[in-house]
Design a protein that fits this description.
Blueprint (H helix, E strand, L loop, with lengths): L3 E2 L5 E2 L21 E2 L4 H4 E10 L3 E8 L5 E8 H6 L4 H11 L10 E6 L3 E7 L6 H8 L4 H20 L2 E2 L8 E5 L4 E4 L6 E2 L28 H15 L33 H10 L10 H5 L12 H12 L5 H11 L5 H14 L9 H9 L4 H13 L11 H8 L8 H19 L5 H7 L3 E2 L3 H4 L8 H12 L5 E2 L1 H13 L1
Parallel strand pairs: 3-7
Antiparallel strand pairs: 1-2, 4-5, 5-6, 6-8, 7-8, 9-12, 10-11, 13-14
Amino acid sequence: MGNICCANGITLSPESKHHSKSAMVLGHSRIVLNRNFNSFDSVYNLEKSKLGYGSYGDVKLCTDKQLMTCKAVKILNKDYLRTSNIESSWFYSKIDILNRLDHPLIVRFHEFFEECDFFYLLMDYHQEGDLLKHLKSNFPLKEDKVCSIIYQLLIATAYMHNKKIAHRDLKLENILITTSSGISIKVIDFDTAAYFEGSALSGKYGTYHYMAPETMNNFYNEKCDIWSLGVIMYIILTGKTNLPGMSDTQCPSNAHQLKLDFSQPLWQKVSAPAKNLLKKLLEKEPLKRLTAVQALNHIWFQQLSHDNYDTTLNVLDKIFKFNNKPLVKAAKKIILHLRTSKDEITSIEKAFLYLDKDYDGEIYRDDVFNFYLLRYTNEEAEEYTTEIMRKFCDFADVVVSYSAFVEVATDEMALVDSQNLRYLYDLLRYEEVCRNLDVVNKEERILGKEVLNVNKLSNVFAKAINIDRDAIQIWADYLQNYKCESLGFEEFSAIVEEGISK
């Protein structure tokens, strides 16, 4: 096959399909967690009841006043941080860590606020709750369900460790359930997370009965997370909250005397491979303890059905048909900040994980090529792969982040869904009224003003944090081409549909 020219003029050749991971640049930048300089109360309504708590703050439910969508918010009291000898710079170091995380098994963060007394950190809300809550209601779980949970946790951990990030507080409460039927999970709470590249970890962080014994020596590595996963696996399998001979208050160093007695009745229904993996995760000597990637290759996980080929093929077909024009790309960026079908996101997550064979949280050309090679000829696989990678093509040898994958794989028809169009229209109209009009009763004016002032769109989003400003500008320019000072909802919908279908 000859060279195929990319949409931005860069040439892709068959020889470029092999990649060197040290030389890669992300084809699309991930969503960045930015500070919102508005007051938190002006943007969100806060519920009184707690969803949970993190290492340094409570988690509550809040509702976006514009979109009426729910998010979870972690609220950190600055006075509490100061009494714990924690400076405000600590919070920003955690934001830096969160900005490096972009994975389907890690909760999505949106924005943060800093005010005189509090930090507010916004993230996705998952109403199913955490794994502890699920276990209390559904124990005992079938072993295949336990296997799936541990497998997902190891994938998330392998990704974090590949990014040189140790979580240091993996526990049941820090694992959200996103779908109760198939038990899909997301890792949360990175308050105690730390970089470990080039140096050992120090500090006694975490929850006592999940902490690895070596953490008490103040000199350890990322395998402390593997021990924590072993504790999680033990609790899910047995229903017991502590390892044998341990309690919530006992020093983790006592785990050096840990002995797992598999002759006890509670282990009779647990398979030999499960017990074998548990022993290896709870290996007291860190050098002998498995890495996350090594654990993922354990025989216990062979019982899982990894055949998501058809799901992945359907997602790649959507990418193959993706309209790469600026208007469509801009519309997707906006809509993805509003709402996306949960079922669609689940299928996109499955496809991404299926393609990511080395668990590094990024898709390379070879990943797509090897996928197509399972059912197609070498020449067909090369052709399909080239077309797929062109959809992400900012560079000839592109690396696709999870955010970029979701953006391109989202069904274009969702953009013109009546509910999404109404959300977008109301958002634009709300912003226009609240930012540009001097009104006493904003709610009354919003209800009464059923038109969108096109001429003010550019200024409307000058301070917008959650939504891609370039995307808004593209649509503002497009709408202004119609020479209309204002648009009703039906006119707006027709123009958007026309722009996307071009």
